[in-house]
Amino acid sequence: MESAEIKQKKRSRGIYLLPNLFTTAALFAGFYAILAAVNGKFELASVAIFVAMLMDGLDGRVARMTKTQSAFGAEYDSLSDMVSFALAPALVIYIWALSGLGKLGWLAAFIYTASGALRLARFNTQLGIADKKFFQGLPSPSAAAIMAGGVWLGVDYGIEGDTLGWPAAILTTLTGLLMVSNFRYHSFKEIDFQGKVPFIVLVVVVVVLAIVQTHPPTVLFVLFLVYAVSGPVLTLLQLRKHREQRTTAEKSGE
Questions:
Q1: How far apart are CA 175 and CA 171, in angstroms?
Q2: How far out from the chain centre does Cα 4 lie?
Q3: Per-residue pLDDT for 47 more than 90?
Q4: Cα 238 to chain center, whole Å?
Q5: CA neighbours within 13 Å on the CB side: how many for 137?
Q6: pLDDT tens digits for 170-181?
Q7: Pairwise CA distance, residues 3 & 7, whole Å
Q8: What integer best gives the mean pLDDT of the chain?
Q9: Rounded to whole angstroms, what are the CA distances from 113 to 47, 89, 181, 182?
Q10: Class for the domain spanning 2-253
């Protein structure tokens, strides 16, 4: 009996390999993005951030599908996100476009990094109470996609980053502030990847992939930029709806 209990304790001290492999891959991609930017390979740096996004999206879903969620995995995922979606994008866009602005450049990059850290901390503290259908504030992977997509788009069109210093600083700052805002964003977590879906859903996925393939940097940048704007629009529409309902209730009460 004692040996069985000892074996159970030893087993509980281990970690699940499969989901943490994806998390490690996301962390490596973020780390590689920083190295690539330092060496002036901005296109590779941008692509690496998108790879980190893909790996980050897979680790949680794999953990849920295989029932291998753990407190260790959640903490490791947050640390990986901090590197890949808060620090790496800020450094990539700083080296590419913001360094020429001096203190204002690194201030914009720091605001983005700090906002990413605060966004992750707030998300972790609200795991048990937040509405799973919505995110509070722009998710850090989506914010990183805007930064990486912008750099990738500029490099693809042969634009020197120094010429876009001010627009890049404004975009970096606003994207960072959106992460710590109270705007609501659809999480798309209600999508069931294990259940059956109508055939048209597969057709839509194929069409979306075909559109992305036409020019990945443009499509991805615009796609995530639209998602970033959807938060304020969705929140304002909901506030307007609540206001109209309250007005209607007050009139009916009279």
A1: 6
A2: 43
A3: yes
A4: 23
A5: 23
A6: 999 999 999 999
A7: 6
A8: 87
A9: 19, 8, 15, 18
A10: mainly alpha
Amino acid identity for residue 196 in this structure: K
Contact criterion met (CB below 8 Å) for 106 and 132: no
Q: Which of 225, 44, 211, 79 is nearest to 145 (CA)?
A: 225
Instruction: Let me know: does 155 contact 46? Beta carbons within 8 Å.
Output: yes
Q: What would the two tokens of residue 214 be? A: 């036409």
* Strand 184-186 to 134-136 pairing: antiparallel
Q: How many beta carbons lie within 10 A of that of residue 103, not counting itself?
A: 7
Per-residue pLDDT tens for 141-150?
999 999 999 9
Tokens of 141: 């992977």
Half-sphere exposure of 243 toward its Cβ, with a 13 Å CA cutoff? 6
Q: Whole-angstrom Cα distance, residue 123 to residue 119? A: 6
Helices (H), ranges, the chain: 2-12, 17-38, 42-65, 71-81, 88-93, 103-125, 140-156, 165-179, 199-214, 216-253
Alpha carbon distances (Å) from 242 to 26, 53, 136, 234: 40, 35, 18, 12
Residue-range domain boundaries for the chain:
2-253
Taking alpha carbons only, the member of 153, 164, 35, 156 closest to residue 91 is 35
